[in-house]
Amino acid sequence: MYISVEETCNKWNITRDALLGLLNENKIFGAVLNKNNEYEIPMYAENPYELSNKNLLDVIDQKLKQLNKLRELCFSEKNRFLNDFSIENTFNSNAIEGSTLTLRETVLALQGITIDTKPLKYHLDAIGHKQAFDYILELVDNNEELTERRIKDIHFLVLANKRVDAGRYRNMQVSILGSEHKPTSPYLIESKMKQLLDEYKNSTENLIVKIAKFHLDFESIHPFIDGNGRTGRLLLNLELMKNGFPPIDIKYTNRTKYYQCFDDYHITNSPSSMVDLIANYLIIQLNYQIDIRNQGTSN
Question: pLDDT tens digits for 41-79?
Fold first, then answer.
């Protein structure tokens, strides 16, 4: 759910120029462009000026405690939320990787309808991502441990357009477009993945920091020939949901900010930029979940 720039200015008590400045500086997470090429802001986003004076991890901890005191969503509410989320997440995650399907076209592709002006690959990417999201929901329900086998299973579903490479580590060196970082050599991938999973399992850091670092390191290894970004973002949500958090949908409009998180990590070896991005998206989702559960309580 989104509100206009004007409505956001009134809600946050800031000027239009100040809001547009925040948008230009990528300090508003989850904003999207509508069909008129105008920004719309998530209804549940908080004023970045106010958040800048707070520890975001503490804010998240407080909101999660508040959420856990409220009623659970009923079966139909939960299914409706997850279905709507998975469609928009499929659109955004694929768009980040270059898909030109619109949100509406993504809906049609998932219904089995072909858009004749768009490549078949993008249709298959949409179907594969949705199937992979449904699979991680099963893993969440069963509280399954994250393993190499399950990562490969997720990747197999994601790479619906290229089954020959699906679910298999790459056997050639690759580069990441627009990045100076060199991914792991093929012969080291298996050992690096085992090390990554061991470090994640044994880490005692804050959960959001752990998940952010895992995502950064997974993408740095770049274990597959294709589909690493989509698989990595699904793994991020898998681990969030397993630990009681709602999933997050990193928007296509924030892709530059998202890519910058990786550059920052490779330069500073600190996951703080990614932690900040994940935290801001989590705050939006937690606010939304708190609101809909409160609505149900008042009824």
Answer: 999 999 999 999 999 999 999 999 999 999 999 999 999
Q: Indicate the burial class of 202 (C-beta count within 10 angstroms; 0-12, 13-18, 19 or more).
A: exposed
Judge whether 217 is annotated as a binding position: no
CA distance 14 to 281: 21
CA gap 14, 213 in Å, rounded:
34
Q: Does residue 280 sit in helix, strand or coil?
A: helix
Q: Tell me 3's DSSP state.
A: E
Best CA proximity match to 236, nearest among 259, 262, 208, 272:
208
Give the CA distances from residue 173 to residues 2, 98, 138, 267, in Å, rounded to whole numbers and listed in that order. Answer: 42, 21, 33, 22
H or E stretch including 32? strand 32-33
Residues forming a β-bridge with 33: 39
Residue pLDDT, tens place only, 83-125: 999 999 999 999 999 999 999 999 999 999 999 999 999 999 9
- Residue 227 annotated in ligand binding: yes
Is 104 annotated as a binding-site member? no
3-state secondary structure at position 206: coil
Q: Any binding-site annotation on 259?
A: yes
Q: For residue 64, what are the CA distances in angstroms to 59, 61, 79, 111, 289?
A: 9, 5, 20, 35, 10
- What's the pTM? 0.95
Kindly state the percentage of the chain with pLDDT values over 70. Answer: 99
Active site residues: 222
CB-based contacts of 201: which residues, under 8 Å, 6+ apart? 146
CB 85 within 8 A of CB 73: no
